[in-house]
């Protein structure tokens, strides 16, 4: 039995799982200690494609060794006990003006560790030099934070206060640094919104996953304002391994995770 927390369990006996390298996100199936990459699902339980053969979505189906695989777009990490953990999403990757890629969901998982944050949405405008963060606060925690640091019982009165926001940004940037988030990924501006993101608001799904487009449209004025302000710390211009590679033909380089191996690890 799988008693791990934060993982999606073992592959089913009827499924074949592969991890495909995703160079742009720096995820490889040769990563140590755990292989990482885009999750491909194959086997007889997987559809052969969409009914409409002209659908653009059919590019998500590929064939490897005469087996049809569906490319999920999810980034997985395989653990030694055979369980799989979803750690990222390809669609959550954005490119900054400097050429570096930022994984939105990865940064959000880190900033959500801050007690005052109930939910957050990292955003990078097209060709932006830095990221910004929209925060839906934990009402109890942000009230305590405002009273403890500013003697203010109503945190809403501080929502546009520069010192209040600067302190929160500094706390967030410290958390990001301690958790290995690169400087260019770290949000430079924030906006705290006085609203909880629930499925009823249309800003998250029933599973509380962000609806990024809906959030962007709702808070477009805030986003516009944040990008007209100078960031607290100028983002680094140093180029890293995340710089966009030169366009190359797509190579199907995967690691196959045998069900026999999975079963032996149970």
Automatic annotation (TrEMBL):
GO terms for molecular function: ATP binding; long-chain fatty acid-CoA ligase activity. Belongs to the ATP-dependent AMP-binding enzyme family. The keyword ATP-binding applies. InterPro entries: ANL_N_sf. GO terms for cellular component: endoplasmic reticulum; lipid droplet; plasma membrane. Gene3D superfamilies: N-terminal domain of ligase-like. GO terms for biological process: long-chain fatty-acyl-CoA metabolic process; neuron differentiation. This is Uncharacterized protein. Transmembrane segments: none annotated. The keyword Nucleotide-binding applies. Keywords: ATP-binding, Ligase, Nucleotide-binding.
């Amino acid at each position: 039995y799988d008693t791990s927390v934060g993982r999606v369990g073992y592959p089913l006996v009827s499924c074949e799982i592969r991890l495909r390298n995703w160079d742009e996100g720096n995820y490889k199936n040769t990563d140590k200690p755990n292989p990482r990459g885009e999750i491909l699902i194959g086997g007889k339980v997987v559809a052969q494609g969409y009914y409409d053969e002209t659908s653009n979505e059919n590019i998500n189906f590929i064939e490897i060794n005469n087996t049809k695989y569906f490319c999920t777009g999810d980034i997985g990490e395989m653990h030694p006990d055979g369980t799989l953990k979803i750690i990222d999403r390809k669609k959550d990757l954005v490119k900054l003006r400097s050429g570096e890629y930022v994984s939105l969901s990865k940064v959000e998982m880190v900033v959500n560790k801050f007690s005052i944050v109930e939910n957050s949405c990292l955003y990078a405008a097209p060709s932006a030099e830095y990221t910004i963060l929209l925060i839906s606060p934990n009402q109890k925690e942000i009230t305590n934070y405002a009273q403890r640091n500013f003697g203010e019982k109503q945190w809403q009165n501080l929502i546009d206060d520069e010192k209040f926001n600067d302190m929160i940004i500094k706390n967030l940037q410290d958390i990001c640094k301690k958790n290995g988030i690169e400087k260019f990924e770290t949000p430079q501006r924030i906006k705290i919104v006085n609203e909880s993101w629930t499925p009823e608001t249309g800003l998250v799904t029933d599973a509380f996953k962000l609806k990024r487009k809906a959030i962007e449209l709702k808070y477009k004025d805030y986003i516009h304002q944040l990008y007209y302000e100078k960031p607290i710390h100028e983002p680094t211009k140093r180029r890293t391994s995340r710089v966009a590679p030169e366009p190359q033909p797509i190579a199907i380089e995967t690691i196959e995770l045998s069900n026999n191996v999975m079963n032996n690890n149970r």
